[in-house]
Here is the input.
Amino acid sequence: MKRATTSESFPSSPEEIAAVIAKAPQRVDDPEGAYDPNDPSAVEDFWKNATVHRPGRGPGRKARKVLLSVRYSPEVVEYFKSTGEGWQTRMDDALKEWVASHR
Here is the structure.
């Protein structure tokens, strides 16, 4: 029975290491791409500016929104979706504005 490999082998030659470094993400503040994964400040800069790294609420913090299922007319949803990324936040802002004006 053939065993499945779960990862690639570790690069051992200088050429393989250089190829892996070349594939590494570029520093946001360095358009030349001189990202060195062994440079702690480069790694810190990458994670500070990375769009994928979004810290959560953390322990002891309460959620600021309530999760629920709701139905809206297709026209309303289409309108807000057509405004692009962040449409749910804009929809929430519009509802907050309506609530404030109707108190």
